[in-house]
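Justification of computing resources. Each target in the renewal requires a structure prediction run like the one illustrated here; the chain below, 609 residues long, is used simply to show the kind of job we budget for.
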Amino acid sequence: MTTTQTTTKVTAPAPAEPATSGTLALPPHIARATATAGGAITVISAFLAWTWTSAFPGDLTVYGYPGGLQWLVLVSGALLTLFGLSSYGIKGLTWLTPQGADPAIRLAAYAALATAWFSMGAIATTLGGVVNLEPGAYVALIGTLIGWIGARSLPYERPETTPADPEDTGFGQFKHNLGNRWETYKGAFTTGTAAPAKTLPSYVEILIVAAVLALGLVVFTYGITTEYDELFIGFLITAGFGFAAIQKAGLIQRVSALTARHRNVTLVGAFAAAAAFPFTQSDDQYATIGVNILIFATVALGLNIVVGLAGLLDLGYVAFLGVGAYAAALVSGSPTSPFGIHLPFWQAILVGAAASMIFGVLIGAPTLRLRGDYLAIVTLGFGEIFRIAVLNLDGTSGPDVTNGSNGISSIPNLNLFGFDFGATHTIAGFTIGRFANYFFLMLLVTLIVVVVFRRSAESRIGRAWVAIREDETAAEAMGINGFRTKLIAFALGATLAGLAGAVQAHVTYTVTPEQYQFAHAVPPNSAFLLAAVVLGGMGTISGPLVGGALLFLIPAKLQFMSDYQLFAFGLALVLLMRFRPEGLIANRRQQLEFHEKDEAPATLTKAGA
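Resulting structure tokens:
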């Protein structure tokens, strides 16, 4: 008997195509047209009257010319329209979206929707109801809603998700399903690979960099000169979503590539743009905020050496700013100084920097053998010891050195080479006040700190700092002297803080112990300085400068939230750590570390399989 076996060939099923559909049910071509039309309607609405009375600031009663919040809606609507037109491949606009248009369209639609609806809510709240809205306001609301519906209907590849475990608890299943929905929602903002950039002549690339820097000056000047709270909040909404849209479009990456090829030109251009800021102001009102932003951002950049490069968690860094300020104030001719010394400024600033460096070495030498939380606790203790010490050096509880809680007051204005920083000057027809004079001086100090940071980070010692930050044990095994390397970082960071402190003493006229606390509603303090480094991006130059500017500008402009600033500050940090732990401006290494999963394909396509 013969048995015959039949073998059936089993063919593996082909991998399923990823699901591509929008959140809302509109055909793709209609969704794209709807989003673009919504952006155009939003632009038109900015030229219509939004209210009948000028009681709301910004004068939104004029036809044919935007004012106040209308400018912000106009910008967001223009972004939505341009990205929508670029998605059609229109010649001359495709360069706007090298990484794809759809994620940028979605974020631009959110910018327009959030700004317009916030604006109408603010108008209705201030004037006493929606009855005060003119037809132009309803056009803006409808236009932004149309654009948002179209943007949310654009198709995208949905990432694969796993079903919830039926044996799990009800809350566990809810949490799992919520996580699946969040992953699906994030899939709508996943970008593709950027198209290769065209090779441009060097002078064209430099002109593009100059144009971007000029645009940055315009945005910064507009933000710092907003005259009322509603306008500043609207500016934050538009700038936040707009920046995200531009980044998803791939323009930020293109500009970053250009600035990397022309680093020296970018550095000079950036400081030239910053130096032009005082000439855009008619008085010293906003130059005051500008010089304080520079002080705060410069100290944050010095802390970036300690935290961002060397990986040392310093919670008492503001004490080094105080040491520099007190040291310079004591030798600058203040009548309340017990020393009675009046040194030239270049000597006073060196005294401030040297005093901070000495304190950095004295504090760092016995403590830098500690790691992690233990080092953080010690530095926190040093910050409080400094504040309490200068508070008690009042002639009663201790020697009469710092005048106790009254501090060192009446610090005279600087006079360098016959130029009185406390007087008003006229330069090329522009009137430059006291704070604008100190703005230029602080800008020079910031330039010095940037150059020192850049040269240090690219040197052998900078590479040693990074090695210790990544793995101190492995770095020491490779021959790096960990203690000496960390001590250099600690001393250099303290020295840079002392430079800024010497200028701060003359800007504020008075230095008191209350200015140098760990946490306080008014920056600079150690908590805000550390947050500026983390917010901006550790290990970068522009990150702490941007983070410091935001963390000083936002509390200064939103005075009505003074009672809730620390709460908002903590909430913002939690959200930042959850959604963008690498900071606003992060280097490639940190992006890979924090988003290692995101580097893999978001969906299982044929190529991925």
